[in-house]
Records
---
Amino acid sequence: MTNEQLKQWLQLFTDKVVENKQYLSDLDTPIGDGDHGANMARGTTEMMKAIEEKNPETVTDTLKLSAMTLISKVGGASGPLYGSAFMGMTKASMKTEDLVEILEAGLADIQKRGKAEIGEKTMVDTWAPTIEGLKNNELTIEKVQSFSEATKDIKASKGRASYLGERSLGHIDPGSMSSAYLFETMIKAGVK
Ligand code: ADP
Ligand code: MG
Ligand code: MG
């Protein structure tokens, strides 16, 4: 990925999150505290503002600035988790240009911080199959969406939704949806 592609990706991601701010918060209402859309819209908007102001010139610098802004501006559980994801990607980008390896490092840091495995109804349930799909050269926007949809059938065992136990069933996990936006816009930006 080039720095230009990365910036295009982050802009499309921000637009998608801002457009769907209400929907993300609506997903967070029955199984959380209804703030995921507001958290993500605030954080991504601040991230783009920082990128425009500081104009980072390399992939690593852009990822690092994004990580720091997400950590400090998103808030909630998702802020440190997205921040960790981008920090993991930052570190990997210093060693490799391979997108799969970069995303794997992002997922590893999400899991290091949040301790969630696949099947606990979190953003991990979008990240893990997306990376798998990318590895096998069969990732599509429809598939990314289906990974988030599939969290409906999972009982939450991490995050706020875990307080609901069985009652978390039937609802899409909000963080899995914002992560689906992340990967949908990655595909749209032609990031490879
Ligand atoms: P909060 O729950 O603090 O209000 P948000 O609503 O912004 O934070 O984010 C909630 C999302 O964070 C969940 O939908 C889930 O995807 C994600 N999440 C919560 N805990 C974890 C965890 N331990 N590991 C991975 N993702 C998590
Ligand atoms: Mg919330
Ligand atoms: Mg909250």
---
Amino acid sequence: MKFKKKILGIGAGYVGAPSMVMIASKCPDYKVTVVDINPERIAAWNSDRLPVYEPGLDAIVRKTRGRNLFFSTDVEAQIQENDIIFVCVNTPTKTFGAGAGMAADLQYWEKTARQILENSKTSKIVIEKSTLPIKTAQAMERILSSGKKNVTFDVLSNPEFMAEGTAVNDLENPDRVLIGSRETKSGLAARAALVEIYTRWLPREKIITSNIWSAELSKLVANAFLAQRVSSINSISALCEKADADISEVAHAVGTDSRIGAKFLKAGIGFGGSCFKKDILNLVYLCRFYGLPEVAAYWESVVRINEYQQDRFIANILRSMFNTLAGKKICVLGFAFKADTGDTRESPAIHITRKLLAEHAEVVISDPQALANAAADLAHEKGKISYVEDPYRAAAGCHALAVMTDWEAYRKLDYRKIYKSMVKPAFLFDGRNIVDHRKCFEIGFNVFPIGKPALTRF
Ligand code: UDX
């Protein structure tokens, strides 16, 4: 079959693969290929068990794979073959050298840029989809323009705003799509080519176009604002616990102001995920780099409050359980950084579990999707850890439950049955405020929500 356009996605991770899957689904006359250097990951995308858990994604992959969607490890051949290339490689926080712990590690990204240059025989549109520090497009352009003069590259920034767990809906029906380009003739033509892809399923008004630096910065700022809301509400949850106020009531009262809005005001044990912390630290690094220490300190405090919230949760467990956890069994309900994903990157559960182990508690971890990742995260920890998918079996014989992930299933558990199987006095620390606290208290638990008065018998 002759395809109208050929599109390549480099990097088959949480962002790249679902984005490309959606393009393949909405544009059956385009050939979409996803490449990755990791053969296991590609094999998984070609199998019945996809490497990421994302509700609704399997069905779309089944419909499109082999028709106009292909997964391959042959990065170089595919670069030659395609004219539109989305770069979706990971850009973790640097762990070494200048900017370690803050700046983005661009080695995979630069390697990809060089690979594109080496393997391109025709001109191409190269689209940054990974979240990157601003001015990365400029570096990309510099690398790409260091080659043969008859092959040209237009670099666009098209950051992805989808969230995990809701990727399919977010990709199908996003609030907006952002496309940044150079405002030159060829930059604008490349921009138009990308707009054309998205208008296959989205109204033109949803597509925002801007200059390339604004697009790059907007992605960092959007994540920083979202994370800031979580830290804002979490900081107030600490005050609620002291002042006998209820964080859910405060969030509701505040969020009904249409200027503030109700979303992203759920107090909990803090934000996790691969983006928020990384992007804020990136923003902080940029501010310092450009000589704006006050702005850097402002955004850094969002991360500090997130750490504070996790430490507060642990301190509360320790204090409530008579200042010793040694030899006590704690059931960690949920390890994913949020519901509907198996992803545990930067999950508050990692830090909290480490602290529990440091207190010599025995930890039983339960999660419907994230146990394999949890085991990998904790592989080097000393202490007693077990992994039990069934929450009833996990909780049996424990002294406390600590809810870490807002899985819907945890709202509906039979807490009476769980209570009966636990050591008394039984404790329930609800790090996500999803359990019926009053009911659990009546069953017999000592209940410690976030940002609300504790319900205890002591
Ligand atoms: C985020 C952005 O939402 C998305 O636009 C961007 O593309 C990638 O980063 P994601 O990391 O998948 O997406 O998760 P998100 O739903 O934003 O949640 C992030 C964290 O904040 C989770 O740990 C979540 O539990 C926490 N959170 C969110 C709260 O604690 N309270 C809230 O009210 C909302």
